[in-house]
């Protein structure tokens, strides 16, 4: 007879009492911030439920936040917690309006959300993490680089009154340094590992049989490949003759590294050799051909044809050079002819055989994973012709003229598949992580992926309720084989790094920002930049506004335009730079431009053009240009400028926004705020004192000084502006060199 968990916040007879889950939850509560590494389908979500219930019981009035990398997974967690717990549950995603998200946050005890949504709301000041007693990072291996998990963990540790962090993953990665980085970013001191071989786990895991199915390329595909290889080899020889590469036996990674070296050479030289630009173009064309070969070998004719059509529309030198190559145009012709003749990759025929065999007799559920949406469409159309009941599942981004799925559509597809309305789910990588699709008998990988994390995630979609199977389609003597062996090798390395059951990691505590920080206005379009996260970390108070000019307004007179090096290059090409500079000097006395990054001269534009643009900004427009190395450096520089500008405390400044006044009150405030040294606070005081805009304009200097905060200097300047004769445009204009 099954035993069930008994807890005042867990519904009776809802969670089976598994000893290993209870011990894992108890260890998290006892030891503190922890990462749990366990195979998919072992019930990591149940562990999170047990910890959440105890935290809500201990800290009454607190909240639990569950973060997931995708919207479908966030919705799934909401449903799971609602099913198991006696607590108010909700979900927050970008599809929900900001004001409704704020209301949901206030009213709910358990919030399941995407990290980008919560990050955006925190930066906008809609709510904070102070009352969150547990934060769960699902698929926590993503907590690297600039991913939102990193900022949210830091913000949580800084602000929460009773912090506890729980990270969940089936695959933290093969690299030991990456595992340590994830732990440091999420402030986790404990890593607990459960494997398929653990005695307390084995009864709950169903074995998964992996089968490799190999196919050979057809003659039509071989002919196209031979032409593309010839195109690639010729260009690699040219690169070798230029001294860019040492051998023509290189892969895509080697080409990318070579491109970086050439770009650095261009950056270091005042007058780069023409050969450098020739090399950049050749490298770009080689990368294009490498991708075409990957599509041909692993995907088929239709995806390759679609890619070649997109390449044909490009106007770059690399694309034009390829289209002028007889061998490349011949490859395009053969691809088009194969497409018209209905030639398909042999994988497709083998896939249909597998699906038909599995769907005979007993009711079966199958997931087919493929990397590219073009391939997904090809498989779907073939399934329709073969009478196979399949449904497509992919992301929300629109690509190649096809709209992405909405959150509701994704949810409905998963629900329909779960209920048995479809036999086969055709999916891109969006269904790899965490999506709960029970009773899947077979996972088919249309192509191997060179990532142990993604292989583990895909394999974990089967073997949940009964014995599972995974079939991997591999084209012989192609990169398919290399990718598969790479993922196997990395998974073995990951297990070796985690062997022993528990890994202790030293994590340094976060540094609290010292003292009360300055205040700035930040443009609302900067909400996704790392700079705002860093400003938050170092104690800078800010408010998001749709600024008409610049990115960060520091005071009434000072505005900062922040550009990454790539954005700076782009703004030179499309002439935005000069328009922005003109608006900055027109609206602010002290405009500043920050250029972030150390690769300013590594693009495709001539270094002299970059230097000319820098000279124009600094000399012609009189705007100081400050270089910074990174988002952290930019944030520190903005803070330092703000401290210098705000020595006398938080400024009262009028914000230049794109938003036009709508109500009469807003119009009145807008007019009065346009007076010198009058921000929103003083504008409101003046209107309250004199009753109307007319009253303010007619007030004498003495009457103006009677209003709190309006001193003699400010009052005198206001009267001077109101009374001075209008003399027309100033003759002294800037000379703009575009």
UniProtKB/TrEMBL annotation:
Entries under SUPFAM superfamilies matching the protein: P-loop containing nucleoside triphosphate hydrolases, Restriction endonuclease-like, RuvA domain 2-like
Superkingdom assignment: Archaea
CDD domains: Hef_ID, XPF_nuclease_XPF_arch
Annotated keywords: ATP-binding, Helicase, Hydrolase, Nucleotide-binding
Gene3D superfamilies: 3.40.50.10130, 5' to 3' exonuclease, C-terminal subdomain, hef helicase domain, P-loop containing nucleotide triphosphate hydrolases
GO-annotated biological processes: DNA metabolic process
PROSITE patterns recorded: HELICASE_ATP_BIND_1 (PS51192), HELICASE_CTER (PS51194)
Start and end residues of each Helicase C-terminal domain: 347-511
Molecular function GO labels: ATP binding; catalytic activity, acting on DNA; DNA binding; helicase activity; hydrolase activity; nuclease activity
Helicase ATP-binding domain: residues covered: 25-190
NCBIfam families, per the entry: PRK13766.1 (NF010337)
PANTHER family given in the database record: FANCONI ANEMIA GROUP M FANCM FAMILY MEMBER, FANCONI ANEMIA GROUP M PROTEIN
Name listed for the protein in its UniProt record: Fanconi anemia group M protein
Organism: Methanothermobacter defluvii
